[in-house]
Write a structure and sequence with these properties.
With 413 residues, the chain is of the alpha/beta class. Helix content is 46%, strand content 15%.
Length: 413
Amino acid sequence: MRVNKLLAAASLVTFCFAAGAAQAETLQMWVRSGIGASFTKLVEAYNASHDDKIQMTEVPFSELVQKYATAIAGGQAPDALSLDLIYNPAFAAADQLEDLTDWAKALPYFSALSPSHVKLGTYEDKIYGLPLSVETSVFAWNKDLYKKAGLDPDKAPTTWEEISENAKKIRGLGDDTYGFYFSGGGCGGCMIFTFMPLTWGAGADILSEDGKTATLDTPQMRKAVDYYREMVKADVVPPGAASDTGTNFLSITNGKIGQQNLGAFAIGTLVTEHPDIHFGVSLIPSVDGKTSSFAGGDNFVITKGSPRADIAKNFLEYAYSLEGQKVMAKYGSLPTRSDIAAEVLKDLDPRMQVGVDAIAVAKTPYTLQFNDLINSANGPWASFTNAAIFGDDVDDAFATAQEEMQSIIDNAQ
């Protein structure tokens, strides 16, 4: 009898160990290449503190969307994905993502999550994606160049008239010093990120609210184009801007650019990699002085039918915890929760707060045709910004882009 009891006890222990081992699973997650240390460190922290693990696979950014779509079609998709939020609506509309609505709305901090990310993660009133990494666009200026040009290095310009005048004074320093920079050589992603806030803040947009009508030709957009054209004409913008497809997006880091609209991620880049550049950041003024920003970054999505959806949710809740938020912020990512943002950033560079402030006014175009309309280097938006700012016929640039955008929208219906 005693032997039987010992065997039974041993079997029970073996079963418990086996059950425990079975409960620990590995979630497969894809991310775009170069996602940065903030996310890789988050995964490392999660794996170190949880039985379940996250297996992160980096996929080249230019291939991620197509590879994910192919993997879904072949039944080989990862459990979860860090997906550029602009592509959320298309995958949700194709019924390829897990519905997170009830779980998301039950999160006690749901209302504190980045509103643009939640909006882009929503399709037909259901939530399929939530913010993972948040990015915004901000205005930056080189304080040393401001001072040399006789400007107040601690005073942020609040209108484009000021920015233009400051640019001329900085250009007056001569040689290869320029007052303003932007990547205008067919970089649709660059220009939607840095240029559209000029019109959003003034109440205009390039698409209707439902995304079915192109609304490019507005007084606000024409005014924004005029500001940029005048700066180009005044020679305050380097000639290379006309052909830069994004390669020199961070030109302010060379110390020869006085002002530039950038991503908030550049704050960390400047601080850690270019400590010799003294800079200030503020929200981007629109053509009427109000502020705006572009909300970029990634949403966290779960592939529909994943058997490890609960693990994915646990991971995202960890990312949203104070510990997770601090890990990401330490390596340059903005907080995704406004309710704890101040605590997350309290020991970090105070300029990061500007990026957080931008979240409240940031926008992202909502369309199932984002790539064809905006991101494509040969698409109507990229072609328009280049032609309207650097070309000779502004009216033709507006008319052509408006027609092409509407055609893409209509053909997708």
